[in-house]
Amino acid sequence: MVPTITWQDDYVVMIDQRKLPFKESYVVCKTPAQVVSAISKMVIRGAPAIGVAAAMGLSLGASRIKSQNRSTFERQFLRICQQMARARPTASNLFWAIQSMQEVLKQHPKAGVAELKDLLRKKADELLAADQAINRAIGLNGQIVIPDGATVLTHCNAGALATAGYGTALGVVRAACEAGKKIQVLADETRPFLQGSRLTAWELQQDNIPVTLITDSMAGYLMSKGRVQLIVVGADRVAANGDVANKIGTYSLAVLAKENKVPFYVAAPLSTVDLSVPTGEEIPIEERDPKEVTHSLGKAIAPTGVAAWNPAFDVTPNRFIKGIITEKGIAREPYKKTLRAMKEENA
Questions:
Q1: Residue 71 is part of a domain; what is its CATH number?
Q2: How far is the C-alpha of 244 from the C-alpha of 233, rounded, in Å?
Q3: Average pLDDT over residues 53-80
Q4: What is Dmax (Cα atoms) for the chain?
Q5: Full-prediction pTM beyond 0.85?
Q6: Strand ordering across the sheet containing 26-29
Q7: If you count DSSP H runs as helices and E runs as strands, how many of each does the chain have, helices first?
Q8: Which of 6, 111, 239, 295 gives 277 a disulfide partner, CB atoms 3.0 to 4.6 angstroms apart?
């Protein structure tokens, strides 16, 4: 698997997911502002990967602060945190990572600036390594729900590219394959940014996992014909009651799955669970440039000047979800109770 994000000396390097699968190129971020821009412009995307990128970007920013006065250092660091928080509003992991980095300062009130910079770099490295381990645990916990010989449908990209490695939804698929199960994957193309056709299909091909690309509108038909045994998707934020914000189109899939009696699972780390948000109604939904809808791969696909709407996410109510696969196990109804218990255990 190609590394999604890594350090190169003191710079943050990430694969440019906008160019895949046609070109494998990398973006080198030398300032925290460049990391913010990379997150905002979807050079890197996927909630876990965004969280890791934010932590690394904050460490990078801290290392560039010149003042040796702790109070001045803290003010400048918190300013960088505020800039990072504006990168994308829906992904819970972004804010979780920022909070994790800010906790370093609170936990070391007597540390000098040089020590704080080292501690922040260490914390970012811990979050990077932890995400990879968490994804493998999610995969191990989730693969038990995939029957041998099943066809699994997924939406958007919740693979290695959406994380620090291995993946959440695709981590479940990878773990099932590693367990010897013979499975097929159907990948929704995922308009308008085509994460399914560009990224998921590419990732699975790299791992020699059988994958068939379908348009988003084909999923219901295939379910009705018994061609799908299970759906597993990722998440950008999970509310306290188990409502899930994920890539636009996820809600439609969940409704179709309920109608056709196809189990619908969400795979996400506990860092994506936001207990401060009671229900999905309170999750902010990012709206992106309408040009992403009217254009594809840089080319116009609609009449010039036509209006377009581009919410990047939708919310799937918990009643459509069979289980939420985490690194601590599979949360099931009542989600308000099981998710809180898992979060408290993980604290």
A1: 1.20.120.420
A2: 10
A3: 97
A4: 67
A5: yes
A6: 5-8, 11-15, 26-29
A7: 12, 16
A8: 239
Is 264:322 a contact under the CB 8 Å cutoff?
Answer: yes
Confidence of residue 292 (pLDDT cuts 50, 70, 90): very high
Please state, in angstroms and rounded to a whole number, the distance separating the CA atoms of residues 331 and 323: 6
User: Are both 54 and 192 inside the same structural domain?
Assistant: no
Residue type, 330: I
Whether 2 has a pLDDT exceeding 80, the answer reads: no
CA separation, residue 328 to residues 58, 114, 347 (Å)? 28, 36, 12
Q: Print the domain residue range for 72.
A: 5-136
Residues with a known catalytic role:
236
Look up residue 55 and give its two tokens.
Answer: 């932590």
The two three-digit tokens of residue 338, written as one number: 């099981």
Q: What is the pLDDT of residue 3?
A: 83
Residue whose token pair is 């493998």: 136
**Contacting residues for 331 by C-beta, under 8 A, at least 6 apart:** 242, 323, 324, 325, 338, 339, 342
Give the 3-state secondary structure of residue 256: helix
Residue appearing with tokens 């401060």: 276
CA trace torsion 342, 143, 195, 205 (10° rounding): 150
Residues 17 and 110 in one domain: yes
Contact indicator for 17, 26 with CB cutoff of 8 Å: no
Angle at 239 between CA 234 and CA 241, to 5 degrees: 115
How would residue 262 be classed by pLDDT, with cut points 50, 70 and 90? very high
